[in-house]
């Protein structure tokens, strides 16, 4: 009973907090920073349109809902993923987890953007100085999750964020909190989940690139260096509520449907729909779609998503390979490949 009360308390606090954090969602589109936090990872979740708040498990769940990290058939897991993102940007992701008996499950993850070198330009050299710099965007996550009962799990991720653009950089911290409830109302296969993500203090840039040489006209002194002060920016926080249902036709065939409502503090509301067919826990076929009714059609550049997955157990070691495809307007379509192992 105490565990159920704790779950209900978390849900209540999440909904109350969301009223103040997300009240201006959609009114400040594109003004948040640390947008790499919003880049999804994992072929399975992307193939299902991001509607995996309830049914992603193990390391697959780290980005979507940290509570489901605790749901895994294996004690130790590792996962690696690569995505061809927009504008020739690559997204590299890796994570490992282990379950500590009686304590819960812990995981470490890292996400980094692979961006080609950019030419350095100045007012005097608009075509380039011959120098280049490589932007670096990275998120290091530490996650803890625990089963409160055979149905309820909770999880917390602490993300350490770093950004570097030439001679300026910013760093910060954010938190993801999630809760998941399986077999809701004693209905086998029905699940409910809530997650609040990217909650944290503001960030701002600093570094030697902010020094400029100027002359103070009101003072009798030569030109000297002055440091520009940068404005702080908020994190792109989100609140997500999801439900899922899995129907088993027989021991070898099942179909899973899931939906997620996502409220953003710097973007319009999103409705995510996904489905997955499972054959003998060996072959998976997936599809998904996102709906953004509050935004103009051209503002949402993502379309249909789809993917397949293979899962094979060899001598007690489980191997998993997933692929996802997502339609993108104005840029090349996204392709994602994920490889995982559990034992």
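Q: What amino acid sequence fits the structure above?
A:
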């Amino acid at each position: 009973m105490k565990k159920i009360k704790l779950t209900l308390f978390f849900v209540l606090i999440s909904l109350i907090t969301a009223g103040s954090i997300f009240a201006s969602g959609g009114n400040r589109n594109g003004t948040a920073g640390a947008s790499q936090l919003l880049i999804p990872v994992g072929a399975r979740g992307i193939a299902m349109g991001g509607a995996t708040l309830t049914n992603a498990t193990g390391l697959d769940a780290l980005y979507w809902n940290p509570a489901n990290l605790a749901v895994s058939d294996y004690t130790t897991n590792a996962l690696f993923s690569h995505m061809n993102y927009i504008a020739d940007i690559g997204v590299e992701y890796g994570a490992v987890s282990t379950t500590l008996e009686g304590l819960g499950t812990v995981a470490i993850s890292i996400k980094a953007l692979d961006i080609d070198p950019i030419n350095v330009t100045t007012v005097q050299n608009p075509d380039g100085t011959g120098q280049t710099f490589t932007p670096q965007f990275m998120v290091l996550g530490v996650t803890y999750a625990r089963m409160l009962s055979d149905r309820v799990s909770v999880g917390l991720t602490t993300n350490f964020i770093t950004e570097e653009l030439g001679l300026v950089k910013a760093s910060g911290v954010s938190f993801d909190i999630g809760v998941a409830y399986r077999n809701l109302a004693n209905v086998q296969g029905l699940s409910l989940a809530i997650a609040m993500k990217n909650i944290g203090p503001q960030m701002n840039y600093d570094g030697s690139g902010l020094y400029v040489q100027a002359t103070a006209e009101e003072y009798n002194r030569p030109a000297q260096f002055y440091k520009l002060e940068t404005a702080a920016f908020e994190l792109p926080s989100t609140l997500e509520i999801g439900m899922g249902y899995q129907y088993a036709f027989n021991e070898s065939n099942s179909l899973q449907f899931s939906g997620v409502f996502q409220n953003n503090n710097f973007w319009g509301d999103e409705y995510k729909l996904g489905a997955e067919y499972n054959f003998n826990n060996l072959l998976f076929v997936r599809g998904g779609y996102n709906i953004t009714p509050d935004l103009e059609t051209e503002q949402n550049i993502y379309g249909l998503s789809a993917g397949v997955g293979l899962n094979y157990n060899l001598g007690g070691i489980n191997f998993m390979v997933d692929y996802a495809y997502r339609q993108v307007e104005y840029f090349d379509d996204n392709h994602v490949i994920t490889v995982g192992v559990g034992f």
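Q: And what stands out in the fold?
A: The radius of gyration is 22 Å.
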